[in-house]
Specification:
By secondary structure, the protein is α+β, with helices and mostly antiparallel strands. The protein folds into 3 domains: 5-166, hpI Integrase, Chain A; 171-237, no CATH class; 263-333. The protein is built from 11 helices and 12 strands. The chain has helices at residues 17-37, 41-45, 84-100, 140-154, 168-181, 186-193, 198-202, 210-226, 237-245, 284-304, 307-333, and strands at 5-7, 14-16, 52-56, 63-69, 78-81, 111-112, 117-118, 127-129, 135-137, 251-252, 255-257, 277-279. Strand 1 (5-7) and strand 2 (14-16) form a beta hairpin. The chain starts with a strand and ends in a 17-residue tail after the last helix.
Length: 350
């Protein structure tokens, strides 16, 4: 298909809309995957369709999607849990590549600029057609260019008023900072980032003024001296299993609980009122039933003058109605049906 070109009537500039749309799409995909995974830029370019694997939770037998990360700095690979947000991004990338290549993700060889070798042809997710209409894996340099273009269009500036500059590694720091701020233990974050020790992960957390860093490190040293050493060690296999199995306890009738790892419920399990409830679109009929039930109970409370109970029921009704409206808006924005993540089925060649 020939590229779509238009002319800017104000400047006379010829604009390649096909190329502009392609660059905008992959800039979005790069930012989303980096911020949801914390992977290095080399690891990002190595992600293939084959990296999506299934993991069965030992206790429930539930199948959850995982993303296999090929290491770039160590000899150990790692698996990351694929969140619903990340699953949607990956599914969009896979669908786009399939649509442009006759229903299949193209098999493309990737050149490793560090090792100076070309790898085998694989279904890489971060690849696009070149001007010669050949598929090519996006390089780290191109990724930085796409980020720069996105920042320039957004017009973002730092505290000094200078144009904001972001590198792929900055999203790795954002991921680590957000994970720790959300209650995830540092040694678990280190495992997710592929670090061999906690100290390396601590360096990825938010960077502040030097004096503040020094003061904060002094505070940490004092805190560490009075805290159990177990908090700063490598996680045991049991702890790692508990971390992975933690997600099964988030399953609720109406969706999933989004509260941070290791935190307790702040709403005494009144999930319908809780802002951390991530609604399942299929739960709409149940929410309607809950609203009808709450109205009946409020009417009963009025007749019996249960004023104390009425206040709680009305609060729940307001929250349930708000969630129903939000769910309907979400359903309008998203296509119907399940997201096709496209996890490949690998059969035994024997």
């Amino acid at each position: 298909m020939p590229p779509v070109q238009v002319e800017d009537l104000a400047t006379g500039e010829q604009i390649d809309l096909t190329r502009s749309e392609d660059e905008a799409f992959f800039a979005w995909a790069i930012v989303e995957v980096l911020r949801h995974t914390g992977v290095r830029v080399e690891e990002l370019t190595e992600i293939t369709h084959l990296a999506l694997v299934s993991y069965k939770l030992p206790d429930t037998g539930e199948i959850v999607p995982m993303l296999q990360i090929v290491p770039s700095k160590s000899n150990e690979e790692r698996l990351l849990l694929v969140s619903p947000e990340l699953a949607s991004v990956l599914a969009t990338i896979i669908s786009r590549l399939r649509k442009a290549n006759g229903g299949m993700v193209p098999l493309t060889a990737r050149y490793d600029s560090h090792e100076r070798v070309t790898g085998p042809a694989l279904p890489h997710l971060f690849q696009r057609r070149t001007s010669s209409w050949q598929w090519q894996v996006i390089s780290a340099a191109t990724i930085q260019v796409l980020l720069n273009q996105t920042l320039a269009r957004a017009g973002l500036r730092d505290a000094a008023g200078q144009p904001l500059r972001y590198t792929p590694h900055d999203f790795r720091r954002c991921f680590a900072t957000e994970a720790v701020a959300g209650g995830l233990p540092v040694h678990i974050v280190a495992r997710l980032l592929g670090h061999k020790n906690v100290t390396t992960s601590q360096a990825y957390m938010a960077v502040f003024d030097e004096d503040l860093v020094r003061t904060y490190r002094t505070f940490l040293d004092k805190r560490r001296a009075i805290r159990p050493e177990a908090e700063y060690r490598e996680p045991t296999e049991k702890e790692w299993r508990e971390f992975q199995q933690h997600f099964q306890t988030r399953k609720l009738e109406l969706g999933e609980c989004g509260r941070p790892y290791g935190s307790s419920c702040r709403h005494e399990f009144a999930c319908i009122r809780c802002p951390s409830l991530r609604l399942d679109p299929t739960a709409r009929p149940r929410i309607i039933e809950i609203i009808a039930n709450l109205k009946d109970r409020i009417q009963e409370a009025k007749l019996n003058r249960w004023l104390g109970e009425m206040e709680g029921l009305e609060s729940s009704l307001k929250a349930a109605t708000t969630k129903l409206v939000s769910l309907d808006r979400m359903r309008e924005r998203q296509p119907t049906g399940q997201v096709n993540l496209g996890i490949p089925v690998i059969t035994d060649p024997r």
